[in-house]
Every structure is written in structure tokens, then in C-alpha cells.
Write a structure and sequence with these properties.
heterodimer; A: 269 residues; alpha/beta; D-Maltodextrin-Binding Protein, domain 2; 2 domains; 21% strand; B: 311 residues; 7-stranded mixed beta sheet; 10 helices
């Protein structure tokens, strides 16, 4: 009695699989937007996911999935052709030539600017790699890479002697210096400005020891031809929930990257 | 069958006391012992994982005291058999047991509520369980810039802390209005006096003020009645109605402990104070309460939040 309907269902499923479903049925497939950023700590994955999913569920069958591991994320980029990826431009530059063809469609902007600089801030007046702890919200690999760009004349061996303390947020890194928990903070100018409006005295004690070259903000990439998700992300700044998601990523909006810009950048390499 | 069961139980019990060890005999590599109060408790496990990740490649053995009813004996046996360059204790049971033995080895600790007891003990280093009060105030002001007067109730044990906070609050353009209590019976009248004078009530970790759940309830009920938002030092209070909580980020605490161990054993860098405040924050925000109290929230602070409570 119970097996007959199941058999029928199985036959129907197989039939539909071979014959093909109407396009409307296919559109119910969920598109995933994966996120990984070595520039920030990943302890906020849960809230990032819930904030983005609240916005995305109003837009259709999309979901947001933060990824904690670089290797897993790179594996997803290589193998998942239907997904969209939000990632660090620094990370994308590292893998761009090694992976399948991808389109960089959007770049994050904050205060109308698509770049930012990392700065090294301390109460001390110079860096001493032998005896310094640097607080940073990025991964160790990313932070060492930024430190090398701030100090191009110092060997990577000398910089590897620095103690790196990973903290969840840029402002934590600054406060770690302010409250004598670390000797220096690798942070952004924007975070330093935020602290200065709050805590004038602490800000006055801090020196900028060095500054990185301009770094591009987050980038959205996808397989060629897949644009629906890009439109959904582009509209984020137009709704309260979308704005909340952007703020979580430290952005105000997304701006389109033209094919010409991408080609220019490739030819400059 | 019963005999077999008993033998199996005995075997399990004896295994529970064997440290998980990956020690090498190389004398140039520091030997570190991690003693965990209960590795099945998430907050202890997270600290241990972050600690081990930071000191990856070091000579570390771990001991879980979860099912150990005689932790002092276990530790004493272990320390008699093997010498260590540093011991990292996670939680009060681990630290209390080591403290009883009082070894010559440097002891580093975290996740201990009464950490102040160990803050001046020679050879003891650690990470406090709450974010520095000044840092908590900075976050409060960052999220709610219009907050000008913050009330706090404290007892004798926190006198110095309140004194320090009052001076750092000036720099943030915040006024701290503090009321001291000497016994629990004073709490109800002090909170009634305090609330009309302040924009927010700040809960600090105080053994007398928060001696019981009923004390916490009394504070929350009075604050709600007078439309006064509550800021706190632990995520637990968000579910009781706090608007914002700034607690310690547990992985950062484990990483800080690892750096302290590194500094103590290698003597390569200056040792900061014996007990450090946590460098990482874990922030919870109750948006429902923000709307209830019609508070002006700095929207750009949202990129710092770990947990949001909505409707």
C-alpha cells in the first residue's frame, strides 16, 4: 500500500529528469554567495550570515555563506561555477591567474572610495621586530604581507620575529595599544579617526609608524555570464536590510567594475 | 558481564587522568602543560584551541580535568614525572588545583572569574575575564554617542576600578555616577536613587551587587520601569534585557595566553602586567531594546557586532 505511490513518484522524478523541467522549476535552485576575507577576523560569521540572508530572502533564492578557511574557499571558487564570491581584492590578485576564468563585477566603496590604506600605529616612535607585539584583525599571512609593504627595506626574516596578536576588529587592535596590551596596531585610517573622535587623549599618544600602499576594497566575482546575483548585491544600498549587510562588511555600497577597468588592470600587471 | 563493565569503567577513569601528550625529548624546545577545567565546555575549549593554534609546533601536552575528582593528586603525579617550562590553566578548577601545588613553574591562566586574587601572586600571569572597563566605556560611547551620564553600583572590591574609570570617563565626555553598597540590602534603595540621574545603567562584575540572580532581576526590573537602558560586561545579560554587552572574545584570550607563555619561557619580550585585560571584544546588541528606549544608535558601529537580538 505504501510502496506504490513512492514507486510512482520515483518514475515521475526519473521521467522529469530525462525530459527536462520547465524553466520556472529550475529557478528555484538556490544560488550561494560565498564570503571569505583574510583582512578581517571571522568570529562574526553567524551575524554576517543572518544579516545577509534577511536581505537576500526578499530577493529570491539566494543565500549567504561565510567561509572560515582559505583552502575551502579557494576550492569552492575552482569547483562551484554557479556561485558568486565576495572576497578580498588582495586575495583575488593572488589567485586570479591560477584559477578558472572569472569576472570581477563589483567593488566595495566606503566614503565614495574604493581603496583604503593600512597603517601601523604605536605609542612608540619606531618599530623593533625583536620585541614587539602587533595587534591586527587580519590573518597572520595577510598582516605579514602588509607589514612587508610598509617596510620594504626590512627582510621578511626580521619581520617574522614580530609577535602577532589576532584580534576580532580594527578598533580592538587600536584599543589594545591604548590599554598597553600590544605595542602596535595594524589598522586603518578610518578606525584611527573613529577612535580619535571618541578618545582624544588616547589618539594623541599614538604615532603612525608607517602606511601601506592603497589597497582595493572587497570584490565580487562570478563565472562569466551569471549576472542575477550581481544585480541583487548592487541594490543593497537601497534597502535598510541591505545597508545593514554592507555596514557589516565595512562598506557603504558596491560600484560596478567595467570590463575595460579589469583589462587595464591586467595589462598593468 | 558486571566485572567486565567495572574493568572497562576503571580503564576509562584511569585514561581520563593521562595527559594527551605529543612531547619530544629535545631539551631546547619548551615543554608546556595545558590544564583544562572541562574541555567539553565551549568557552574553555575555544581558549585551548586558539592557544594551541598560536603555539603550533611547540611541545604541548594537555590534561582535561572534567571527570577528575582528585585533580590535585593527578597534577602532582604528573609534575613529579615530568618538568614543564610553563603551565596554562583554563578555568577555576585547573587554576585552583595548580595553586594548591604551587609549583616553581610559571603559571598562565584565563577564564577565571576571581582572577584578581592571582593578580599580584609571583610567577602567576593571566588574562582577565572581562574587557578593560575603560574599553567597555569606549564601546558604549561608540554605539550610543548621545549617552552622557552612566550610573554604576559597586562594592568595596571594585573601589579602585571605579576610581580609574571615573578619570578615563572624563576623556570620553561621559560622566560616571557611582553608588557604593556595603551589603546587599542596600541595593534596592541605591538603584532607585541612581536611575533618575542617569542615561544608562552599567553592570560591572561585582561580587556583592550581582551576588544572586534576584539582585540582577531587581536591577533590570527597576531600569525597565524607569526606561533606562542597561549596558553589561557579559552576553548573558542580553537575554535579561541589556541593550549592549561587551565581553571578552575567547579565541583572542587563548592567543594572548599563548603570547604570555612565549614571553615568559623565551624571555624575548618585555612582560606586561601580570594580568592583562582581554584584547578582543565580543559585542552583543539588542535592537529590540534600542527601539524600546528610542536610543540613537551609531549605525556604522554595526560592523563591530557579533550578535544582534531583533524582534
Amino acid at each position: 500500500m505504501h510502496t506504490l505511490p513512492r514507486c510512482l513518484l520515483t518514475v515521475a522524478f526519473l521521467f522529469l529528469s530525462f525530459v527536462g523541467l520547465p524553466s520556472g522549476a529550475y529557478s528555484k535552485e538556490i544560488t550561494t554567495i560565498y564570503f571569505y576575507n583574510p583582512e578581517i577576523n571571522t568570529t562574526r560569521s553567524v551575524i554576517l550570515k543572518s544579516t545577509f540572508d534577511q536581505y537576500l530572502k526578499e530577493k529570491g533564492n539566494y543565500r549567504f555563506q561565510p567561509v572560515n578557511s582559505k583552502e575551502t574557499f579557494e576550492g569552492l571558487i575552482s569547483n562551484n561555477h554557479k556561485a558568486t564570491f565576495i572576497m578580498s581584492s588582495w586575495h583575488f590578485q593572488q589567485i586570479e591567474d591560477k584559477t578558472r576564468p572569472l569576472v570581477s563585477a563589483l567593488r566595495g566603496i566606503k566614503n565614495k572610495n574604493d581603496t583604503y590604506r593600512k597603517i601601523l600605529v604605536s605609542k612608540l616612535s619606531s618599530i623593533n621586530p625583536e620585541a614587539m607585539t602587533i595587534a591586527t584583525s587580519g590573518t597572520i599571512e595577510y598582516s605579514r604581507s602588509i607589514l612587508s609593504s610598509i617596510y620594504p627595506n626590512r627582510s621578511s626574516e626580521s619581520l617574522s620575529k614580530l609577535n602577532i596578536l589576532i584580534v576580532p576588529k580594527d578598533i580592538d587592535a587600536l584599543m589594545a595599544v591604548g590599554f598597553d596590551l600590544a605595542d602596535a596596531a595594524l589598522t586603518t585610517k578610518l578606525s584611527l579617526e573613529k577612535l580619535s573622535t571618541l578618545y582624544k587623549k588616547q589618539h594623541q599618544q599614538l604615532n603612525i609608524l608607517g602606511e601601506s600602499l592603497p589597497l582595493k576594497r572587497l570584490v565580487v566575482i562570478h563565472s562569466p555570464g551569471k549576472i542575477e546575483t550581481i544585480d541583487v548585491l548592487k541594490q543593497m544600498s537601497q534597502s535598510k536590510k541591505g545597508q545593514q549587510g554592507l555596514h557589516m562588511l565595512g562598506l557603504d555600497d558596491w560600484q560596478g567594475i567595467s570590463t575595460a577597468q579589469t583589462k587595464d588592470r591586467r595589462s598593468q600587471k | 558481564m558486571r566485572i567486565l563493565y567495572c574493568l572497562f569503567s576503571l580503564l576509562l577513569a584511569s585514561c581520563a587522568n593521562i595527559p594527551d601528550s605529543k612531547m619530544t625529548d629535545d631539551p631546547t624546545v619548551n615543554r608546556i602543560l595545558v590544564v583544562n577545567t572541562n574541555n567539553s565546555v565551549e568557552r574553555y575549549r575555544i581558549a585551548q584551541v586558539a592557544f594551541m593554534e598560536t603555539l603550533k609546533g611547540s611541545n604541548i601536552s594537555t590534561l582535561d580535568l572534567e571527570k577528575d575528582n582528585h585533580p590535585v593528586d593527578t597534577l602532582q603525579d604528573l609534575l613529579n614525572k615530568q618538568s614543564y617550562d610553563a603551565i596554562y590553566c583554563i578555568g577555576a578548577k585547573a587554576l585552583g588545583s595548580i595553586d594548591y601545588i604551587d609549583p616553581d613553574t610559571p603559571v598562565v591562566f584565563s577564564s577565571v572569574l576571581n582572577w584578581r586574587r592571582f593578580s599580584t601572586q609571583p610567577n602567576y600571569y593571566g588574562v582577565a575575564s572581562e574587557v578593560a572597563p575603560g574599553a567597555q566605556l569606549t564601546w558604549f560611547k561608540y554605539f550610543f554617542p548621545e549617552t552622557k551620564k552612566i550610573g554604576v553600583i559597586y562594592s568595596e572590591k571594585n573601589q579602585k576600578l571605579i576610581h580609574d574609570v571615573i578619570s578615563s570617563a572624563d576623556e570620553l565626555s561621559v560622566q560616571i555616577i557611582a553608588e557604593e553598597i556595603n551589603y546587599q540590602g542596600q541595593l534596592a534603595s541605591k538603584v532607585k536613587d541612581l536611575l533618575p540621574k542617569v542615561d544608562a545603567l552599567w553592570l560591572i562584575s561585582d561580587p556583592l551587587v550581582l551576588a544572586s540572580t534576584s539582585n540582577a532581576k531587581l536591577l533590570f526590573e527597576n531600569a525597565a520601569r524607569q526606561n533606562i537602558p542597561v549596558f553589561s560586561y557579559n552576553d548573558f545579560f542580553i537575554d535579561m534585557g541589556a541593550v549592549l554587552s561587551i565581553s571578552a572574545d575567547l579565541p583572542t584570550t587563548g592567543r594572548q595566553a599563548a603570547l604570555i607563555v612565549q614571553n615568559v619561557t623565551q624571555n624575548t619580550a618585555k612582560q606586561r602586567s601580570m594580568v592583562q585585560f582581554p584584547a578582543g571584544s565580543n559585542i552583543s546588541l539588542n535592537l529590540k531594546k534600542v527601539r524600546t528606549y528610542k536610543m540613537k544608535l551609531n549605525e556604522s558601529a554595526l560592523d563591530s557586532v557579533n550578535r544582534i537580538v531583533e524582534e
